[in-house]
Design brief:
heterodimer, A: about 60 residues, mainly alpha, 5 helices, about 80% helix, B: about 280 residues, alpha/beta, TIM Barrel, eight-stranded parallel barrel, two-stranded antiparallel sheet, 12 strands, about 40% helix
């Protein structure tokens, strides 16, 4: 996994709009971000419920700072 | 140099400004205090002297939360320099960081994110640990993090990844038992089995905390009392680990009367004693 993959994760963890676009078309969004085929496959298999809950938790942390 | 310089089991508390008076009034019940480094990195000289004064009263551990050690991206030098200056000033018994990434592509996540459990990330972590050890003078003790999402792109499970990361970095471990407990419950593995698989000789520090729920998941929020199961896991760790352990109770808000926190420190001591006793009598070890 690359720095670009981590950057993609950071964006969908904190940016609700980016996350919604991603969940609507995981493979497409990952491909448009220029990620490698293995990374695209990993994102197509993402734990969607875990992503939503992680985003809620992260948002609460960011709000509490 | 690595690890934590202690010669016996210590039980203490995470420093929070809200607990300052209680901590100073109860130093006879607190063996060690863990301080989140980021709260002091940009403080005034006077604030730093206050931390140095704390260090003359009780052993201090420094705990970083913002370096992003478990990442393919290199840790920024300016962050390491600031941590080095604080370590030099405070002379802690050790310092720790998380096996997490905290930023990417210019975005600050604002939280500890579990990285993809891959060999590539371990390679990045090794580079970051080497850079940190060079600048700061000692390698960090590395902590496992809680995660609500199974990190995408992972090539291995949590215990395997922790073992591989510790072996590759040659670092000691801060084992957060509540993080392990919630990850086990949320992602379907056995926390006790994971403890048996981790390299016991590398476990130097233990975190205890409490949590709540978020939907169907357990959440590590540090706002509740340490649950019984975490004390039971501490006893198992004490049974397995041959070296002195430094145990820290973390509480980040909704502070109870100090007697409640002191009671948790006492329970931690009893769990340590129970585990040590089992270790003494267990011929398998």
């Amino acid at each position: 996994m690359t720095i670009a993959f981590e950057a993609f994760l950071a964006r969908i963890y904190v940016d609700a709009d980016a996350r919604a676009r991603f969940l609507g078309d995981p493979g497409g969004e990952a491909a448009r971000a220029g990620l490698a085929p293995g990374e695209i496959t990993a994102l197509e298999r993402i734990d969607r419920e875990g992503l939503e809950l992680a985003a809620i938790s992260i948002a609460a942390k960011r709000k509490g700072r | 140099m690595r690890g934590v310089r202690v010669v016996r089991d210590l039980v203490g508390l995470g420093w929070r400004h809200e607990l300052a008076c209680d901590i100073f009034e109860n130093l006879d019940r607190i063996d060690v205090v863990e301080v989140v480094a980021e709260g002091w990195l940009s403080g005034s000289r006077r604030q730093q002297r206050a931390l140095e004064t704390l260090g003359t009263q009780v052993p201090v551990l420094l705990h970083g939360v913002s370096l992003g050690m478990a990442s393919s991206a290199p840790v920024e030098r300016r962050r390491l320099d600031r941590m080095a200056r604080l370590v030099e000033a405070v002379q802690p018994v050790g310092w720790s960081e998380h096996l997490a990434f905290v930023r990417g592509g210019g975005i600050e996540i604002g939280h500890l994110a579990a990285p993809p459990r891959t060999h590539e990330v371990i390679g990045g972590t090794v580079s970051n640990v080497l850079a940190a050890a060079k600048v700061i003078g000692q390698a960090p003790v590395l902590e496992n993090v809680a995660t609500l999402i199974d990190p995408p792109g992972s090539e291995m499970g949590e215990a395997d990844w922790l073992c591989a990361a510790l072996a590759a970095t040659d670092c000691d471990m801060l084992l957060d038992l509540h993080n392990l407990h919630v990850n086990a419950a949320n992602h379907g593995f056995d926390a006790r089995d994971a403890i048996w698989r981790l390299p016991a000789e590398r476990i130097a520090v233990v975190h205890l905390a409490g949590g709540s729920t978020l939907g169907p998941m357990l959440l590590d929020d540090h706002l509740h009392q340490v649950p019984d199961v975490v004390f039971e896991l501490l006893a198992l760790v004490a049974e397995r680990v041959p070296r002195p352990l430094t145990v820290i109770v973390e509480r980040d808000g909704v502070y109870p009367p100090f007697s409640v926190l002191a009671g948790e420190l006492d329970r931690a001591r009893r769990a340590l004693e129970a585990g040590r006793l089992r270790r003494h009598h267990d011929h398998r070890l």
